[in-house]
Design a protein that fits this description.
- This protein is α+β, with helices and mostly antiparallel strands and about 425 residues long.
- Helix 3 packs antiparallel against helix 4.
Length: about 425
């Protein structure tokens, strides 16, 4: 039987009579392994999966990673990120609670735990970043041991792979690290690790990145020379956004750092833009600088208007290296509060003013974490969908440390043929 006959008869007679839209709908609902097997059947099946199914799967949000702490934790635990735990809320099923998880969320976390090569597999301090279906991990045991070389891993839950990254002996101190990856651009990814804390950067000490490329399997160094005052840098928000070769990061000083990763000669070029509203309320930006996200191929910045209940959604237009912020939408959160507060005890109402946000990559939906619940909100229809509700044993953290959407990525990762390490015992 040749490849053509296999395609026609797969998965059953009559497959070839279906429209391409129906075929794509069926294929996108398949688990990863049978979908990847179908991709290898013929050139036409490869093209259908690679050019149609993969972009559609990537554009859909399977779930959300979120951070929480047990309600019985001692107060000082709130200042120790090693006590914070992570979990996953599905966006494709009905409402779940901590005592009644949907099967998709349970299966996903089971897969995740089985892949993570650490003992404490659900603490968040080892998760450095998440980008388009890939997760960057660092060995948490080594983060708190002086002069221990940091060991990084890249995990793909969809293909059930956890790849150990070659080490660099100079990596003996804790530094922020990020992923830059888009499977629609390239199957390769980059890891960017800050060489020094950004609070120590200045005109004479520019930002430097150690850059790992999965294409070469090696680390390199890129120096970013931005002629700016030291006041621009400061501490950075942990989770950046990667889009079309650019990395967007927020500074607690009230600035957006904008890095061009695909500049000529392998250099990294940077620019800095003052966030809207910084002059009016610098203290608010230093405490809560806002959020960044990508939707429909565009970069957005979200913040609150002068400590009010309104959410402002901005986009950045760059003209001659000068940035211009354009206000795209204003959302009054009073409507959201009225829809969700009946699900929270009154002692949680104050906490409901502190939210975490994430944007849906292809729709108008906004994901919002409020105290003990996670919802999706459509500002066009004013529709609220409850995605997760705590049973009271855990509380979601109010700041944007760890809250981002996850989409399946069907790109298999390269293994760098490193010697095997012993699997940790529980």
């Amino acid at each position: 039987m040749d490849a053509t006959e296999i395609v026609v008869e797969w998965p059953e007679p009559g497959w070839s009579k279906l429209t391409e839209d129906l075929q794509v709908d069926i294929l996108c609902k398949l688990p990863e392994k049978p979908l990847l097997r179908f991709k290898c059947v013929s050139k036409s099946s490869n093209s259908l999966v690679s050019n149609v199914c993969v972009p559609k799967i990537l554009a859909s949000v399977s779930g959300l990673f979120y951070e929480y702490y047990p309600k019985m934790s001692p107060p000082l635990a709130l200042w120790n990120r090693r006590k914070f735990l992570m979990d996953y809320a599905s966006t494709t099923t009905t409402t779940t609670t901590t005592t009644d998880y949907s099967s998709s969320a349970v299966n996903f976390m089971d897969t995740y735990r089985a892949l993570v090569p650490f003992v404490n597999r659900t603490t968040v301090n080892h998760v450095q970043d998440c980008c388009n279906g890939l997760i960057l991990l660092v060995d948490p045991q080594q983060l708190h041991v002086p002069l221990k070389i940091n060991r990084y891993y890249v995990l793909n839950p969809a293909t059930k792979q956890c790849i150990r990254i070659p080490v660099k002996t100079a990596h003996t101190e804790i530094r922020m690290a990020f992923l830059a990856f888009d499977p629609l651009e390239s199957p390769n990814y980059k890891i960017l690790r800050l060489e020094r804390p950004t609070v120590d950067c200045s005109e004479n000490k520019p930002v430097e990145f150690d850059v790992f490329s999965s294409d070469t399997g090696e680390w390199g160094v890129s120096t970013l020379k931005v002629p700016l005052s030291p006041i621009v840098y400061g501490h950075l928000v942990r989770h950046p956004i990667y889009l079309k070769g650019f990395l967007y990061m927020l500074s607690y000083r009230g600035y957006l750092l904008h890095f061009h990763l695909n500049a000529p000669n392998g250099a990294i070029k940077g620019a800095v833009f003052e966030l809207p509203g910084r002059d009016q309320d610098r203290l608010l930006h230093e405490v809560h600088p806002g959020f960044v996200g990508v939707s429909k191929g565009c970069f957005y910045y979200l913040n609150h208007a002068d400590r009010s209940s309104s959410i402002l959604i901005w986009t950045l237009e760059e003209e001659n290296k000068a940035g211009k912020w354009i206000l795209k939408r204003t959302i009054d959160t009073i409507n959201i509060d009225n829809l969700v507060r009946h699900r929270m005890p009154k002692e949680q109402w104050l906490a409901s003013t502190y939210r975490r946000y994430a944007l849906h990559p292809t729709s108008e939906e906004i994901f919002i974490s409020i105290a003990v619940i996670i919802i999706s909100y459509n500002p066009l229809t004013n529709e609220v969908k409850l995605l997760y509700e705590s049973d009271g044993e855990r509380e979601l953290l109010p700041l944007q440390y760890f809250f981002f959407p996850y989409s399946r990525c069907l790109v298999p990762l390269n293994n760098f043929s490193l010697p095997a390490l012993p699997w940790p015992s529980e």
